Amino acid sequence: MQTHGSGYLRLAALGDSTTFGIGDPVPGGWRGWARLLAEALGTSYDVSFCNLAVSGATVLDVHREQLADAVDHAPDIASLIVGVNDTMRSTWDPARLRAELMECAEALHDAGALLVTARFHDHGAVFGLPGVLRRPLWARIEVVNAVYDEVHATYGGIRIDLASRPEVTTRAFWSVDRLHPSELGHRAMAHLYGGLLRREGLDFELPSLLAEGGIAPSWRRDLAWLVTEGAPWMQRRARDLGPWAVRLALQH
User: Fold this and answer.
1) What is the value of pTM for the model shown?
2) Contacts of residue 181, Cβ cutoff 8 Å, sequence gap at least 6
3) Is residue 190 within 8 Å of residue 24, measured between CB atoms?
4) What's the pLDDT tens digit per position in 85-133?
5) Is 222 exposed, middle or buried (0-12, 13-18, 19+ CB in 10 A)?
6) What are phi and psi of 99, to 5 degrees?
7) pLDDT for the residue 185
8) Considering only CA atoms, which of 209, 213, 181 is closest in space to residue 194?
9) How far apart (Å, rounded) are the C-alpha atoms in residues 153 and 137?
């Protein structure tokens, strides 16, 4: 990993709502694991942080709308964590997903960035979906994971396997919707990635695992989030995947 001068780091974050920071509210918006990691790197380096992630983004969105700006940022480190939204769409296309993810990884690698990626866990199990929906959703996630395996084998970098992390199965890791990490979940991700970056030779204080600086959860805030964001999201996914779910139910 090459840096632009002593003590200077450029970090670009590409992806969806998790990298955007949803689940970790702070005054004025969202924070999330990527910003926590950038702030930790900032204890030792002059960090230029560009978070391009957008809630709801698919691999196609990242390829079309985030990649060029990320490359223009000339990142030393670039996170590419996206694909779960693709598994929940009727437009699911594994071949296109692979092609676009590989193109994103290649472009970021060729720009000189150390890639930061992930392997995903069984979202349906955490969310509590019935088996008839959970199993095919997990099969799609495993397709995405296989592409990330190829990305890692081809371009290297650092990654975490969320399916192997025991904290991912705990309630404290998740926000009220069980789709996005809580502050503690975001901190756990930032801490894990920070440890891997230290193994790459960077020297900085790891992100704290203790809640700090965020807005404390409350049942009123959680209810408001579910009404304004969670329920509409579920309605959109139900309209999109409803016919698919019905076919699966009839086949079992």
Assistant:
1) 0.86
2) 18, 23, 24, 33, 173, 174, 175, 188, 189
3) no
4) 999 888 899 999 999 999 999 999 999 999 999 999 987 777 666 666 7
5) middle
6) -60, -45
7) 96
8) 209
9) 24
